[in-house]
Amino acid sequence: MRIIKLDTKSKKDILENLLKRSPNNYDSYQESVNTILNDVKVKKDEALFAYTKKFDGAELNQNNILVTEDEISEAYANVDASLIDVVRKAIVNIVEYHEKQRQYSWFNSKPDGSILGQKVTPLSSVGVYVPGGKAAYPSSVLMNVIPAKVAGVERIAMVTPPGKDGKVNSATLVAAKEAGVTEIYKVGGAQAIAALAYGTESIKKVDKIVGPGNIYVALAKKSVYGHVSIDSIAGPSEILVLADETANPRYVAADLLSQAEHDELASAILVTTSEEIANKVSDEVEQFVEELSRKEILRKSLDNYGYILLVENIEEAIDVANEIASEHLEIVTKDPFNIMTKIKNAGAIFLGEYSSEPLGDYFAGPNHVLPTNGTAKFFSPLSVDDFIKKSSIISFSREALEPIHRDIIKFANAERLTAHANSIAVRFEEKNK
Amino acid sequence: MRIIKLDTKSKKDILENLLKRSPNNYDSYQESVNTILNDVKVKKDEALFAYTKKFDGAELNQNNILVTEDEISEAYANVDASLIDVVRKAIVNIVEYHEKQRQYSWFNSKPDGSILGQKVTPLSSVGVYVPGGKAAYPSSVLMNVIPAKVAGVERIAMVTPPGKDGKVNSATLVAAKEAGVTEIYKVGGAQAIAALAYGTESIKKVDKIVGPGNIYVALAKKSVYGHVSIDSIAGPSEILVLADETANPRYVAADLLSQAEHDELASAILVTTSEEIANKVSDEVEQFVEELSRKEILRKSLDNYGYILLVENIEEAIDVANEIASEHLEIVTKDPFNIMTKIKNAGAIFLGEYSSEPLGDYFAGPNHVLPTNGTAKFFSPLSVDDFIKKSSIISFSREALEPIHRDIIKFANAERLTAHANSIAVRFEEKNK
């Protein structure tokens, strides 16, 4: 891995290079995405089936689009029983963590008869996109479905593209069943997003769409935003390890590679105060790359978006971590909790040398759907918050309204909203001028 | 107002008619919005000033774009002192309510040395859009700025279009100062959104943009979503009053009109079980319209999007209220709290005959920025939640990782992510196969 002594110029170049990976830079696909969205909106199932034939090579109709109980049983038979055990153990941890994110309705009353509050309600229905293709990511199914389930969402509709044979991945089906998905449809791509957003004869419209996908899926989600809600738009994965001289270079190298292997756009960055650690990590990375099965991807993502950044002191390391706002941040220093207090921007923060990033991806409990590409400055991990919404509650008595009614009338008239003023005035038999 | 006996057909037609008002139906403006966004992204201040000249007729430069302390003092002199008093009283209530929305970091530890938690951090910077034009809405300034302030956002940059004389509305400036805005720029339209999203020489980039605007502003916000965060996309205002035979028809009529006066796309709907109330409210509405200053707007919005819907029973009323998912919902029945428990979708819920909607717009404390046009099914009122973000916290000891490390390795290998598996294996001197 290249080792760079960080200065203003190199920092600017690196930040710009990382942002190149943003899904916001692919507007050229927007037109074809819009065509698909509009076709499915207008022609519904007909268009949905036609696009599935075109892109996935599978023949769908209203009788086979929904995964059946038989297909799910078949999937269980196909999957290694010990993997199902691991999935179940992971679910226990993920549920336990997300239960702690629950929010509650509250109210506050005063003796004058006024009540103000906030009511929390789960969304009624959610669509979960799960990518297809060669690799299956059952962990992604768990992470997207469980927070919805914990929030109390009644209808959870999953969509995932079928193979040419019209089947979907067995591990995906098992994870969906274990996590509590209520319906699974064999469709993918922008056409699946359109079906969830607008509804077709076979797929009822949902309130919100979550889950990662390729650039077509990402742009389609952005397009339907407002018509339905969406989670944040997923970009390529990242890790930033912030290490001092106490770090174990072998562990750091392995953790950098665990993100770099995702795809060629993934980014792995070490920020360290120690030149010795920088050199050792670089050596360990070279060794591991040779041994690992995803060598080609690792090499490309490291060449394009991998950096070892040498900084003068820990404050500089914290600053650059906050500027990059990495999806995953590992703090491997003498006193990681102290440094954590100064971290403003990160999706998930891993503290100490045994908190390896894949622990969070699969098992510890927190969600692995995290803000990428600098969006940790304003987005949060996927959570129960994403599957609830709130309503304000206002209940005033005459006694509570009376002493403030002239103030409200004054404010409304200042905004020239005379019917607003009138609605207060009429309750006190006053004419609004 | 037209009175309609609700049935499946009329309900479908009404829902479709209401959705016509959605900002999602104005994609034809997207191209001109994209041109503006891109110009400002590339040419920065130069483009920002040129568009301000073109659309607002004001001559801006780097020396006069920022509102000065002198201009703010001048604004205070221009505004009625008793209005400033009312604004200050409103701020006390709005702050008190939003303080209750604060969320706190938490963690959970186990004796094996594992810690899981969630850290809450305010956004660093926020942009607030405030519309210009003839009417000024100081209440909108308060409602957008105060939750950011309560959340702990350090930098709150407001943008608002200038008049031809290069000045901005005095009441807007006073409200901004009172609410705690840190910078005010005299720019509006899509060009202001671009400046906030990408940054220019004069305006530093922000993390999130909130605040209502015209269709250009709404589309610009949607376009920059992902690059920065935005609040939900504002549509035209609405009220739905759910009333039984105990309601006061004069109050109901006045409240319907308080929303209908906003603009020609505003919608006012009464859903009632009582034919007598339906007829009386219709009569009262006619009388009020003749007396009120915004008669033309009232007439048009009532003709296009005003309805009195007669239903068989209260359950049917609740169902249609949930389907319409109104921005404002007033429940004026014998037992409003009982009905409230069955309401799934509404921005703000007003209970009982003294809880008139303008009480919530100006004074009670809850936010008046609410989900419109059916989006209360998945969006929430603007709140402190909009100005914080969360990071997961994961800290495991060797003792905590050891008993689960084989499970994680198994899960990672099942997803063919061998470098993920390796990062766990290496900590236990195991080779990942």
Automatic annotation (TrEMBL), chains A, B:
GO BP field: L-histidine biosynthetic process
EC number per UniProt: 1.1.1.23
Entry's Gene Ontology cellular component terms: cytosol
Keyword Oxidoreductase: yes
One Pfam family this sequence matches: Histidinol_dh
Binding site for NAD(+): 129, 191, 214
Manner of cofactor binding, per the entry note: Binds 1 zinc ion per subunit.
Molecular function terms from GO: histidinol dehydrogenase activity; NAD binding; zinc ion binding
Record's keyword terms, sorted: Amino-acid biosynthesis, Histidine biosynthesis, Metal-binding, NAD, Oxidoreductase, Zinc
CDD domains: Histidinol_dh (cd06572)
Lineage: superkingdom: Bacteria
PANTHER family: HISTIDINE BIOSYNTHESIS TRIFUNCTIONAL PROTEIN (PTHR21256:SF2), HISTIDINOL DEHYDROGENASE HDH (PTHR21256)
Protein purpose: Catalyzes the sequential NAD-dependent oxidations of L-histidinol to L-histidinaldehyde and then to L-histidine.
Protein name (Swiss-Prot/TrEMBL): Histidinol dehydrogenase
